[in-house]
Amino acid sequence: MRWGLIGASNIASQHMIGAMRATGGEVRSVLSSSADRARDYAAANGIATGYADLAEMLADPDLDAVYISTTNEKHFPQAMAAIAAGKHVLCEKPLAMSVDDAVTMVRAAKDAGLVFATNHHLRNAGSHLAIRDLVASGRIGTVRSVRVFHAVHLPPHLQGWRIDNPAAGGGVIPDITVHDADTVRFHLGEDPVEVVAMTAQSGMGQGVEDSVMSVWSMPSGAQVQAHESFTHRFAGTGIEIHGSEGSIFARNVMTQQPVGEITLVTAAGAEPVSYPTHDLYERAVGLFADAVAGKGYPSADGRDGVASLAVAEAVAEAARTGRRTAVNYGGL
After folding, report:
1. Domains of the chain
2. Which of 87, 95, 277, 292 could form a disulfide with 82 if both were Cys (CB 3.0 to 4.6 A apart)?
């Protein structure tokens, strides 16, 4: 795989470049809105070329795929340009500022015969793969409810537009709720139907929400309770899945690192659950590259990205209106 980075981002430098190289890929180029930033970022990360013009970058005939990690409002036009140029796309969440735009991106890639994937990292963690296996194998029986707690303290270097710029897609809902929506869908194998929600500005948000609590109904009858925040220093993260025959308690697993503890509790008692500790991003990039080569599928495809955005959009609408809101998946 010969990659181009659309966005000289922290996540690319801290996680994705290493994952691309570890899976045999070459990072050929990086795009930034600033030519100086592109040049400096390329030099710091051993990348041959830095661009400030997207069309020039996409004109490279040796470029196979792009990874998009710009601010959220740029994802749609940049992905559409990459698809038009015949490049495979791995895009950060949320895919776009609206479900309609996200659906347009995914359908355009399909029509062009290109692989399109969403960089939902949590479903690549060994912890979440183990949790999904427990649910799918029936160890906890019929799922009755899920509780997701993903209230963290957003570090200063990641704040910026996330806490004060709604036009760029700021706020905790597009930043974290989308991850939790994907994680719940991954474990339960079904899409939320309706949601209720309330948001707050609890000390960090300026013009955007920095905390949200919501409840989702699932087609099976299970209920999901979710809490996301930018302002909780010591809450810890995790997910609990409760069934008719047992419960799964997973702590500190809503993270980019392969860490955390999982406990399965049934009538036989409590038992720790082991899991592999591979790099989340290497797995995601490897599966994406395999899909481009015609072997299998990305860990999270375009439909997964649309679905997680649809849930987040419904949560935002339910909080805004104070009403129970149906999730609209845009017909995809």
Report:
1. 2-119 (3.40.50.720), 122-281+309-326 (3.30.360.10)
2. 87
Q: Which residues make Cβ contacts (< 8 Å) with residue 78, sequence separation at least 6?
A: 6, 54, 66, 68, 70
Alpha helix positions (H), 59-209: 75-84, 99-111, 126-136, 161-164, 172, 178-188
Residues 325, 315: Cα–Cα separation, whole Å: 8
Distance CA 209, CA 122 (A): 23
* Mean predicted confidence (pLDDT) in 183-202: 97
The rounded distance, in Å, linking the Cα atoms of 21 and 23 is 5
Residues contacting residue 299 through CB under 8 Å, at least 6 positions apart: 117, 120, 123, 124, 283, 284, 287, 288
Mean pLDDT of 185-193: 98
Please tell me the number of Cα atoms within 13 Å of 212 on its side-chain side: 32
75-84 vs 99-111: helix crossing angle, rounded to 10: 10
Q: In sequence order, what DSSP letters do the residues of 129-148 get, joined into one string?
A: HHHHHHHHTTTT-SEEEEEE
Gap between the Cα atoms of 148 and 181, Å rounded: 10
Distance CA 283, CA 98 (A): 28
Task: Please give the pLDDT value at position 104.
Answer: 98
What DSSP state is assigned to residue 73? G
Beta bridge partners of 153: 231
Per-residue pLDDT, 146: 98
Q: What is the pLDDT of residues 294-305, one digit of tens each?
A: 999 999 999 999
- Find the mean pLDDT for residues 169-188: 96
Cβ neighbors of 40 (< 8 A, separation 6 or more) are: 50
State the pLDDT at residue 70.
Answer: 96
Please confirm whether the linkage preceding 192 is cis (ω < 30° from 0).
no
% of the chain at pLDDT higher than 70: 100
